[in-house]
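#struct-queue
[09:14] JT: dropping the first one here, sequence first, then the structure tokens:
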Amino acid sequence: MNEWVALYNPSNESVDRGNWILETADGERETIPEGTTLYPFAYYVLAFRN
């Protein structure tokens, strides 16, 4: 099964999302790289593929 997640920043300020750990329903984990900034009104999309 392919899974994905989109993070959206609806604010007027940038936010640091580095080192967040995301996990699929199957237990697969992915860490957002350190220093990743989500700018105002921007998306960050992460896809997990089998």
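[09:21] JT: and here's the second one, same format:
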Amino acid sequence: MKKLNNLVIVGNGMVGYKMCEKLIEKKVQDEYNIIVFGGESRPAYDRVHLSEYFFWQICRRSFNGSCRLV
């Protein structure tokens, strides 16, 4: 088994979350152990798009998906 170097990310807010997302898209985890340090006890999530996500969930359930953003 190949010994991997460590890649440390400090902060698990939106920047750290997006950084991890991009690194995984580029398959960096095949070359590095990705280690993230953050102050929150919960896993990171995309807070920026959370409102949009809930809008579409409510739209789909309440209006059979016939909504649009203006």
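[09:30] RK: nice, looked through the second one.
[09:31] RK: The beta strands are 5-10, 32-37.
[09:31] JT: good to know. The CA atoms of residues 15 and 46 lie 10 Å apart.
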